[in-house]
Amino acid sequence: MRFSFVHAADLHLDTPFRGVATHGPLLERFQQSTFLALARIVDVCLRERVTFLLLAGDLFDVKDRSVRARLALRSELARLDRAGIQTFIVHGNHDPLSGDTGTLGLPESVKVFGPDWEDVEVRREGRRLCHVQGVSYPDVEVRENLSARFRRTGTHFSVGLLHANLGGDAGHANYAPCTAADLAAGGLDYWALGHVHTRAEHLLPGGGVAVYPGNPQGRHIHETGERGCVVVDVEDGVARRRFVPVDRVRWHRLDVPLFGVGSLDALQAVATEVVETRCAEDFDGHAVRLTLAGRGPLHRELSRPGARAQLEADLRERLSRAHPPVLLESLRDGSRPEVDLEAVRAGGGFMGTLLEEARALEQDDAALAALWDDEELTTLGQRLKRLGVDALEAPRPQLVAQAGQRGVEQLHEETS
């Protein structure tokens, strides 16, 4: 038998976007974006005529969910209810069961899993389609491997709905930790996971698959690119997945090339062109981090005190007036002075010798190891660790080359 469902997670409804340095209509677009992403997920369910929707935790941004967020969720799930589409929900660390006041009900077609594992049969026209299993977080911190509670209960297609950290993803709190082997042991066909905001699929031993759809709306510069949900088509026990973007405000990291750019006017034009090329018009807004990259004659100008900040302020104002408006999250200076390193090397002298020594050291494993064993460097590494700063554990040849290059660039700046 054929059927389809949509898998989404980490809605984080009513994210305040406090880190967005803007105001007025642009801020309103950001604050509305999580609600619009939910509406578009429901649109996908209706368009695809799916049997059910899975929401894998963190529907709300905080434990004490706002009235606005709860009303929005009820309104959208009511649209599915009227279309005869079921919804299955588990709660995660941001929206544990302990934060539910119980003052707003959901449509009868919505199943919210409690703190104990449950298995629910999904039927259509009296015929059993599949099983959906789930368990919610009773409170914020759940350190137990909740996946160990799941188990196959029949021959029909089986789904596990869980908010968990598969494989110890370092970018997220290690709640409900599990491994691929743990999930495979449950014998389920599809694990609908939430918690990790980056889209990923993990093929499991035995033929199952664990999927993170990622969050449907990026909320900061570390959540760039398209965001959305996954449509799953099941036929003869085989799940075929399709990703569908639903985000309305998109985040980008973009480089602004400086090669050949000789004036601030030209730099403004290049930066604007880079943004316009990557920021599509069919969005409510965009947020970008721009990095000035490469060598160019403007490096000296950009190195002056306050220059980058002033350029950033000007670009932020210009981009906010674009259509759609663009938030400049920050402007980073990665520029380098115009230096012909090969000419410097060929010219000899102190700077040429510096480059040659760096190249020789880069290619000499023994010398590089000896450098890394230097007592002062070791002491520095230990001090950095005590301060909570990551220190290199092993020599990296490319860092020596970069150090030589930066030394020459600094000397070139001082003598120009």
SS-derived structural category: alpha/beta
> Low-confidence parts, pLDDT < 50 over ≥5 residues?
none
What's the number of helices? 11
Radius of gyration computed on alpha carbons:
27 Å
**How many runs of DSSP E, i.e. beta strands?**
17
How far apart, in Å, are the first and last alpha carbons? 75 Å
Shape: globular
Report strand %. 25-35%
**What is the strand arrangement across the widest sheet?**
4-3-2-1-13-14
Biggest β-sheet: count, sense, barrel? 6 strands, mixed
Helix content: 25-40%
Domain Calcineurin-like phosphoesterase: 4-198
Pfam families: Metallophos
GO molecular function: exonuclease activity
InterPro entries: Calcineurin-like_PHP (IPR004843), DNA_Repair-Maintenance_Comp (IPR050535), Metallo-depent_PP-like (IPR029052), Mre11_N (IPR041796), Pesterase_YhaO (IPR014576)
Descriptive notes:
The protein is an alpha/beta fold. The protein is built from 11 helices and 17 strands. It has a 6-stranded mixed beta sheet, with helices on one face. A hairpin with a 2-residue loop joins strand 5 and strand 6. Helix 1 packs parallel to helix 2 and helix 8 runs antiparallel to helix 11. It is globular, with a radius of gyration of 27 Å. The chain starts with a strand and ends with a helix.
